[in-house]
Amino acid sequence: MKPARGMNPGDADHLVAALVSGQAPNSDEVITVWYAESAVGEREITVDQTNRSVIVGDRAVVKWLLHTDTAGHPAPARLQALVDAGFTAMPRPWGLLHQRDSQTGALKLSAIVTEYLPGTQDGWEWAVADVRAHVRGEESGALNAPIELGVLTAQMHVALSRTGISDATEAQAQSWYAAAGQDLAEAISLVDGDEGARLRPLESRIQQCLHPISECVGTPLIDVHGDLHVGQILRTNAPYAYHVTDFDGNPLQTAVERMQQQPAARDVAGMLASLDHVGRVVIHRTPDVDAAKVVSWIVMAQEIFLDNYRDELNRADAGHLLDERLLGPFQVQQECREFVYSVKHLPHWRYVPDAALPALLDRLETPA
């Protein structure tokens, strides 16, 4: 049997060379080139479990997609939109490789090539370190990073919205509401132990908080990142620069679902939730930490992020893209998803939604 594309030594080198030459490696392949330069020498990134990523010559990263679908993939159109809009807060896209299905003739995305940014960390590293230093009274970027993230997210949404804006239909609103209800039901059924005992009494409160999703008919829809959280934000060493990565969408959704337009609030809620999760990680992993100070940072960081996101949208005359009604419900839905994910894939993670969800419900239910 012929090895899957990207599994042979030298495949990544050959793909980068093909981008430079502008010629696809094989007759059944199609390449897209945004930028390329010569680079050789492969070094695999071993932490990526969903795909296979290979660094080439310390200049490019070739991400081989191990699970492809002829129904499509969200990354090509979104990267093209960001390139066209001059959005630069991401690793520079180099190109794409599509393979043609021998039976149907349909193209399937096989690889994404982007700039390699040496010395970067993702947000589960730099943000946790920042907050830990902040609560110890040390200098860190804990309050500046949310500013940068708010601006970056808004600029990304403005760029993506240039490809078109639609309005949510009744059918879409009801579909999203039903999906949120399913996430809650799955969490209730799967989470056991002490966490389950604390989650089940919250069910009616969660249902109430999810209800506004059913009423979002007419809210603006755009192409979104689809899986936005601090782990998708790479930061370079000082002077800090922030780069959003991984436009594959939510890996737990089908290809068709990942390519659909969504409310901008979906990404915003994802980032708000992850800022909370950073704090929960710090509390859990840092002996003798002042938990009250960490919780105070969570509140400040979320406010700073959201204020700067709104301000940047307004500067672009795009404030209409954010439907504020959906921020709380989407965050609640995300915590239900975190519970389900922890049970299925990462058991030790359940402490995060276990702490985050009750605090979120309390905040949403407190009159402004």
List keywords for this structure.
368 residues, six-stranded antiparallel β-sheet, globular, 2 domains, 13% strand, Aminoglycoside 3'-phosphotransferase, Chain: A, domain 2, Phosphorylase Kinase, domain 1
- Biggest sheet descriptor: 6 strands, antiparallel
Rg (C-alpha, Å): 21 Å
Q: How many separate domains?
A: 2
Number of helices, counting only DSSP H or I runs of 4 residues or more: 12
Low-pLDDT sequence parts: none
SS class: alpha+beta
Helices and strands, in order, run as HEEEEHEEEHHEHHHEEEHHHHH
Provide the helix percentage: 40-55%
Oligomer: single chain
Strand fraction band? 5-15%
What is the CATH architecture annotation of the largest domain?
Alpha-Beta Complex
> Could you give the count of β-strands?
11
Distance between the termini: 63 Å
Mean pLDDT: 94
Q: Which CATH C-level class of the largest domain is it?
A: Alpha Beta
Furnish the topology, listing elements before pairings.
Layout: H1 11-21, E1 29-33, E2 42-45, E3 52-56, E4 60-64, H2 75-84, E5 93-100, E6 107-115, E7 121-122, H3 123-135, H4 145-161, E8 166-167, H5 170-190, H6 193-199, H7 203-210, E9 220-221, E10 233-235, E11 242-244, H8 255-259, H9 265-285, H10 291-315, H11 327-344, H12 351-365
Describe this structure in words.
This protein has 368 residues and is α+β, with helices and mostly antiparallel strands. It has two domains: 11-115, Phosphorylase Kinase, domain 1; 121-365, Aminoglycoside 3'-phosphotransferase, Chain: A, domain 2. Helices cover 46% and strands 13% of the residues. The chain has twelve helices and eleven strands. It has helices spanning 11-21, 75-84, 123-135, 145-161, 170-190, 193-199, 203-210, 255-259, 265-285, 291-315, 327-344, 351-365; strands at residues 29-33, 42-45, 52-56, 60-64, 93-100, 107-115, 121-122, 166-167, 220-221, 233-235, 242-244. It has a six-stranded antiparallel β-sheet, sandwiched between helices. It has a three-stranded antiparallel β-sheet with strand order 7-10-11. Strands 8-9 form a two-stranded antiparallel sheet. β2 (42-45) and β3 form a beta hairpin. α5 crosses α11.
